[in-house]
Amino acid sequence: MLVVQLEQKSRESPEFTLHKLWLHISPTLETMRSLHKLIMAIHNEVRRNSRGGVSYPKGHVILDVMVKLYVDWGGTLWERQYLFRDGRIPSFLEPYKDKILLAGKYLNIMKRYGTLEPRATSTPAKPLLSSYQNSNFERNTTHGEVLDVLQTLEGGRYIKEIDDAYIYSNRLLLDLLMKEKQVFGRLRSMKRYFFLDQSDFFNHFLDLAWPELRKPYLEASFSKLQLLLDLALRNPDSPASTDPFREELRVTKSGHSLVSRFESPNITGKSPRDIESDLQRSLVNLTSDANKSAMDMLNLDINIEFPFSLVISPRAVAKYQQIFRHLVKLKGVEKQLTHVWSLSREIQHSRRRREADNVKSTLQIQTQCHRMLQFVQQILYFVSSEVLEPNWGKLEKQLTKANTVDQVLQCHTDFLDSCLHECMIDSSNESRRQVLYMILDVCSRFTSFAERILKRDSRPSEPIDQYQIPQDNRHLATSDRLFLVNLREYIDTLEYRDSASSKRQSLAVRLDYNLWYSAS
C-alpha cells in the first residue's frame, strides 16, 4: 500500500521530491532491514538443518545426540547416535518422526563421507500459506490466523519438505552404494566366501590344511591356517584370485562348537537345584569343547569398511558366519567320510582274502560310510542348491528394484533371515537343528573309529583274538545304531512337524526314498 500511495503522489503532485520520498520510506526501510536479517537467519538455519545438523543450545530439539566425539561407522553405533526425546515431539510431527530421523542419519553419513552436495532448488520458496490463498478464512482476525496455522500444520508444506529431505538423502546414499561403490560386488564376495559359492578355493584350503585342522583346536596353529588360506586364495586358477576383497578375509576360531552352542541351559520356571544341574551340564559341554578339533572351531571373519558396513553390518556378518559354520561342518564331515571310504577301498584290494573277519568289518564300514555320506551330501545339496541359491536370485531382483536405502537394508536382512530359517539353523528350528548336529557328530566319531579299525586290520602281522571284540568295533556298532535312531527322528521332523514346506518334504523323500529307514 505504501508503494502505491507514493507512486500516486509522485504523479499527481509536482512538489513531491526525492527528499519527501526518503522521509516516507526511511522508517519502513529500517523495518524491512530487520525483517531481512531475521528471514536470512531462519533461511540459513533451515538450510543447515536440511543437511542433517542438530545444534540447539537451549535443548528444545526433539533429538538427543548420544555420541558426540566418536561414532563407530563400521559397526552399529551410528544407528543409535540419535534418539528421540520423550515429550519433546510435537503431535503434528509424530507421524513423520521416523522419516526425520532417517533423513538426518543419511545426510550425516554423506557429510562424513564428504560427498554431500547443496540441495538444488528449482523454484523459490513459497509462503507457507500460499496454497490456501483462495480459502475463506478470516485472515484479519486472530481467530482466522489460528485457523491458518492449524490448516498449515495439518496439510501444509512442511510435509512436503520432510518428504523431499527424506527422498534426497536416500537418493544420495543409494547412488553412493549402488553406483559408485558397487555394493553388488561386495555382496557377491560375501556369497563366495561365506556361502562357499565357487568353493574350489575352500576345497584347496582343506587339502592343504587338513593335518592341522584335525588337531585339537588348542594345539592347532591358526596363524598357519591363515597362511594356507592366503595360498588357496592366491591360486591363479581360483576365481577368488581376482577378488579385490580377499585380503580382508581372515581365519578365526569360534568360542564354542556348533553342538555345545545350542545346548545352553534354559532356566525359565526351574528351581535353583535344577538350574544348578543344568549349569553343570553346560559346563561339561563347554569343557568337552577342549577336545574338539580345529575344524569344529574354524570360522572366517572379514573387515567391512564404510560405507559397505551400512548394508553388511556386524549383525549381518554374524549371520553369514552362522551359515558358513553350518556349511563347514557339513563339508568337514563329508571329507572325513570320503577319506574313510577311500581308505577302505585301498585296504580291501591289498588285504589277503583269507582274513574273513577283516573283510567283514571292512564291508560293514563301507555300508555305514555310504549311508552317512549319502545323508551329508543330500543336506549339502539342499542347503546350497535349494535354499541359498534361490534366495540369492530373489535378493538380486529386489535390490535392482529398490528405490531407498531402507529397502536395500530390509531386503538384505530378510534374505539372511530366510536363509537361516530355510537352512533350519535359526531359533525356530532348535529341535531339528540339534538332531542334525547330533547326526553329524555321530558321523564324525564313526570316521575316527573306522579309521583306527582299518589301519589296525591293514597290518596282517598283528594278532587279533577271535573270541574278543575290539573296543573300536563295539563303538562302530553303537555309532550305527545312533545314526539310524537320530536319522529316523530327523526325517519325522521334516515330514510331520513341518508339512507346509515343500522343500523340506522333498528333502525327507530323498533321505528315505525307498522307506528303508521308516520300515527298519
Automatic annotation (TrEMBL):
Compartments reported by the entry: Cytoplasm, Cytoskeleton, Microtubule organizing center
GO biological process: cytoplasmic microtubule organization; meiotic cell cycle; microtubule nucleation; mitotic cell cycle; spindle assembly
Gene3D superfamilies documented for this protein: Gamma-tubulin complex, C-terminal domain
Domain Gamma tubulin complex component protein N-terminal stretches: 75-180
GO molecular function: gamma-tubulin binding; microtubule minus-end binding
UniProt keyword Cytoplasm present: yes
Name of the protein this chain belongs to: Spindle pole body component
